Amino acid sequence: MSATAPSSALARDLRLLGVAFAFELRKVTAWRAGFVVRELMRSLWRPLVMIFVYRAILATSDARIGGFDFPTMVAYLILAASFEKLLFHQRGLDLADQIFQGYVTKYLTMPVRFFVLALGRFAQHLAVQSSVIAGLWAVGSLLFPQWWPRAASASAAVEAFALVLLGSYCAFLVCFLVNVLAFWLEVVWTLSAMASFVFSFAAGVLVPVSAMPESLAGALRWLFPYWAVSAPGELFLGRLGTQEFVRGVCVLLSWIVALELTREFLWRRGLHRHVGAGA
Amino acid sequence: MNALLHHLRLAREFARVGVIRKSQFRVEFLTQVVMDTAWYLVHIATFEILFAHTDSLAGWSRAEVRVFLGFLFLSDAFWMIWLGQCWHFGRELKDGVLDSLRLRPGASVFVYFFQRFSLEACINGAMALGWLLFALLDIPGALAPLGLLKLAWALALVFWARTVLSVGFTIAEFRAVNSDLSNLAWEVTMTLADRPVDVFPLRMRQLLTSFVPVAALSSLPAAFVLGRISPLEAAAHSLWIFLLGVGVFAWWRRSFRHYASALG
Predict the structure, then answer these.
(1) Does A104 contact B at CB distance below 8 Å?
(2) A111: distance to nearest CA of chain B, Å?
(3) Which residue stretches of chain A have pLDDT < 50?
(4) Domain with A88 in it
């Protein structure tokens, strides 16, 4: 009896996840122009513009930045743009609005776990962005074969992808946490925006972490953004090995545990405080 | 002249309401100041790291890029102080809540875009100005009387270009409702404005200094103050961007005439 109860709860959560995923997918594709703008073009620009910056520094000489020559840097930036697209984005979750406007209450009275609905968004994000990236890579590798990144090996590609997925889940949990702060704060978009700036820098979207001063790079290697973008990029290109992959998995899993515990704690405390009318 | 005074009085009223609103939301005040500070630090750190690997970025030295960043920060601060409402335009257009704009006492472009005064962004504006002055200390003659005159001119160009782009990008929302096109345009624009325009190829530079004058947010004013372009060239750019702005505002007003409450 006690063994079947959790499994039936899990089955119910999985069914709900499937339904939430399907509805989120329908919603995101309902506005076609919005779909193109929000889903196809998001997160591409910063790394791509940096190609011009690095061209100005690297293309006319034998100079290297952190061991990157110009073609390797271009490959890295394409990877950074692709991986950043896979990371859950702050605009993907409107929980703070639901809390501010009080209509999160209706979900709380339903016999489902609210977090599963948010997980539906995460699953939809991964599905849509994976498809978009697959399309971009197909086109990019046909049009720019000399610049497009090639995996050092099949295992390097798999390891990189695994790190990005774990990193994306960390990013999703951070978004959820920032949104949950709406139980206490009048506004959270500034925190989301700030997290986004700091994340881009710490993830090495603009400058590879290995090109940063060693003391700074050493500190960033303890944070999940590095293992979500910069390290997978270097793994893919064969600049890092399996030992670093294992370390990355350990760091990311530690972050997931810490963020999950914080999420549980803040969600419970927030619900105690919630009166159905915002912060 | 009367119209100008009238709109200045409106601006003062928006500022007064903005100050009152922010006295109610102290955490919002603090987080916005911290957010912009983080944005400044990320930019400074990025360029300082790049200059640890090179002496020149498309002909810009480290000291010159610091001036460039000063203009970028001030341009952003002006945007945050006065033009924050533009972020909400797409949503408000879709929700059909712009009806009252037709009744308000002033030019619709001014009343809509300047309605959300941000006191906290003034703190960031002061920090940005501090950074710019710090950067200009390394530039001979930049703080002499003639240099200060050029600085005032450059700042006027930055603020005008910001307003023109803010208004111009929202026109796309009239054509594609709920598309987020204006926000995407800003994302792309800010990404392009974040780097000295000389890093881009010629055709792109021409585009960014003419029809989409992103360079006027940071690169052009910095180049003028640093003496990288002549006053005559700066005057030509200023005149063009002024005329472009007049055209953009007229186009926005014309688009707004087709606004119906139930676009969503």
Answers:
(1) no
(2) 32
(3) 1
(4) 4-273
Comparison of pLDDT for B98 and A157, the residue scoring more: A157
Q: Has residue A278 been placed in a domain?
A: no
Q: Which of residues 46-75 of B touch A (CB under 8 A)?
A: 46, 49-50, 52-54, 57-58
Residue A279 lies in a domain: no
Q: How much is the pLDDT for A68?
A: 92
Rounded to a whole number of angstroms, the distance between the first and last alpha carbons of chain B is 39
CA distance A170 to A251: 11
Whether the predicted pLDDT of B104 surpasses 70: no
- In this structure, is residue A253 part of a structural domain? yes
* Structural domains of chain A, count: 1
CB contact under 8 A, B200 and A34: no
Q: Is A3's Cβ below 8 Å from some Cβ in B?
A: no
Q: Residue B186, Cα to own-chain centre: how many angstroms? A: 10
Span B159-214, pLDDT tens digits: 999 999 999 999 988 887 766 778 888 888 888 999 999 999 999 999 999 989 99
Domain locations in chain B? 2-257
Q: What is the phi/psi pair of residue B57, to 5°? A: -120, 100
What's the complex ipTM? 0.84
